[in-house]
């Protein structure tokens, strides 16, 4: 995600060489526009992926509480749903608008191009986003106030809408890096179903599920009931580890379908990207180590500083 701004600038520079500039540009010679885009995008993606995987996590956490008839786990799930609602709907929405704001300032021509090329995709995404918001509010505010079967259906409705939002945005974002046959024969579907669409979609899906486990691990560290804290810590740790193992092969597939200029940068041509990837791998190892040791093997070790360290590692890995 940290190289998103660089690829965005590369893509838009190539676009602008074909014609005159019709928009004012916010030129930042010091820190650079790419850095600002990456800064906002990393924070947004770290939360927006949680918005997808977190919906699935809530469903299975609630099912766990219902199947075990454990009121403590159900209370934990409701608290986590409140945290989930505030973080994803409020902070996630603000940073999402922030991305549109910053890319429109840095390169308005490219922003206009993406809007006009995928206008129906954006419109569909907003429909699913609206369903997400409504379902999230209903899920939280009617927790314990409607029958469990109906409540779980609301959860599934939320997850489906969130995943469809991911699918639509994934196609447009991947197009920026791997336009594929669109360069020869332009069209919505040729651009949308580009070479990196499927590996990126599955990779992002499992990463979002993994992050949901990390956020669940964080919420568990604030739980006072030791039995519930340990149960949900172990549950979250297993959840995150399983999702990560499933994400790895799709991540490799995603890298392999990159076009040669981008692939060469990732494989070592760009020292900046190499260092970034080294930081990312180190942070991921740290996150996994904490999750396995203080999550699955020794859930009693899950305390606020430990969970905070795991989340920091996850953020660095995501940003790298």
SSE inventory with pairings:
Elements: H1 4-16, H2 33-67, H3 71-106, H4 108-117, H5 119-141, H6 148-177, H7 188-192, H8 197-221, H9 226-256, H10 260-269, H11 271-297, H12 304-319
Helix pairs in contact: 1-2, 2-3, 2-6, 2-8, 3-4, 3-5, 5-6, 6-8, 8-9, 8-12, 9-11, 10-11, 11-12
Account of the 3D structure:
The chain has one domain (4-16, 23-319). It is 82% helix and 0% strand. It has helices spanning 4-16, 33-67, 71-106, 108-117, 119-141, 148-177, 188-192, 197-221, 226-256, 260-269, 271-297, 304-319. Helix 3 runs antiparallel to helix 5, helix 6 crosses helix 8 (197-221) and helix 8 (197-221) runs antiparallel to helix 9 (226-256).
Tag the structure with descriptive keywords.
82% helix, mainly alpha, 12 helices, 320 residues
